[in-house]
Queue: 3 jobs
Job 1
Amino acid sequence: MTISIQYVKMPQSDTMNEFTTARLEKLAKKYDWLISATVHFKTAQDNNGRNKVCEIELSAPGPRIFASSIELHFESAVKETIRDLERQLKKRKATRSN
């Protein structure tokens, strides 16, 4: 699976690249039919501090799979987004095997 990570109006982070890539590679091992992942990191306007946005779009056979989350830290946003993607992938796998 190819992974593309983009930072919108913010500096790039090697640490976040490694963290996100490691998480996505685990997902790719579990679901070997994934083709690619596009990740966007950005900050949102929010008064309560939860302004770290992570959006991930997966390319796979059939419709693309998308998830996004807004959290206090980018790491927790990545974890939550990948949890959501995994729920969607489990559903897709169940429909593919039937």
Job 2
Amino acid sequence: MGNDLGRRSARRGWRVVAAAFMVMFATFGCAYSFSAFFAPLQGGFGASRGALSWVLSIAISLFFIIGAASGPIADRIGARAMALAGSLIVGLGLFVAAEAQALWQVYLGFGLGIGIGVGVSYVPSVGAVQRWFVRQRGLASGIAVAGIGAGTLCMPKIAEWLIDAYGWRGAYLLLGSFAIVAGGVAALFIDASPQQHGFLPDGGVAASGAPAAHRGEGVALRDAVRSRPFVLLYTAGLCASFGLFLPFVHLAPFAEDRGISHATAVSLFTLVGLGSTFGRFLLGALADRLGRRRSFAGMFLGMALMLVWWLSSWSAWQIAVFALVFGTCYGGFVALAPALIVDYFGERNASGLIGISYTAVALGTLAGSPFAGYAFDFFQSYTIPIAASAAAMFVSFVLIYLAPEPATV
């Protein structure tokens, strides 16, 4: 009987991982399809790169700003309802964008709709995964957030095909429908706590098999945010985020400036998703063995070096190397960030702390991509924003390298 309960506990934990994967595939995949829409929107509205960069920057910033609120709310009302609501909001936002007659309406539909929707669903989904695992937390977190990488890999090319067949408006309508159906169904399988079923993390079972009280061990929220590790993590996230999403907006137009076709440029961007998926699966599990703090620092160093490589890239193969390796390090960053927060502070306020930490990423992202777009409009070059991003990313590496090892909570 005990073995059967243990198997049920393990299956339920991995089912939560699979559900979180699909929610992120649907919602983030729609968001990161933006590279396929960049040229059609620029042509349709006669927008500059700086003005168009705000569309995705607004969305990404809201991912993390909303996460600061959605995390604590999910700690109280449950992650399932939050993930379901987020998927619905993403779809409705794309429906609004499909009807846009001016660029500000794209800001409203895509920027606000996707930003709020992903912000509502992401932190609760990834926070739920943390509670089901301890020994394999890095692996489980990596698999869950690999949905983002898989969405980044698949959805831009799917969006390109849809744009060719139905125009950018029709493509937005179809992607919105996908977000609602696929993300909504997956959200129904998000389960925030093993204890309420009489289970424990890592496939464990409470002694009686009855629902266990969820003690929520860990550091109080107020104490955690004032601690040195949290300050270092927050500052590192802020510095890194200045250039973290530059490729998501500007890699495709950068490649086209090098004489590469639009279709090939979109394909090059999907390599970020391929690397991201690889990084989340491999590096999450590897970090469980090598140490999650050291591995997290390594992700920042890898992205800094790759941004330097991007500066001197002129051919398709050079851009492909950048996209693949940068994406791998980015995937490792996303996989390890929530796991490291829980390593330091426990799972008592997991979603809340993850959400608060992500506001740092929101601040840097809001400035980074538009700055790159306006810098290009003025200088006709991406050199200054990419170089500045590489320097900021290196600062993030130093901060995490100097951080203390997490203690057992």
Job 3
Amino acid sequence: MQWNLRLRAAERGIWKSAQMRRMLADAGLEISAGKMSSWWAGTPPTMRLEELDVLCAVLNCTPNDLMTPEPDKVAARRPRGSDAANGNGDDHPKGGNGGSAPTVAPRLGKPRSTPPM
């Protein structure tokens, strides 16, 4: 996702993170200077929905205005040559795993053992 907080804030005349932080506090969202810095400087690694809700209310925008999908980055993360991406369900070619990590099969009907007492 591309994070567009600074662009949306600038469209509303907010040029400094401290000003944005004060506006969020006035709306009932107290956040640390460090968290505000991570939101302001780049893409936040996590964000609570309630935080996003207040942020959108302060900026009078929607989550779609703050985040833009980047499908090319998602495609680049997929393993090359994966048949699963092609939809046939086979994760490995016939006749072995070709040097890749072993397939992990689910343990249906075989629950984990209980921890020692």
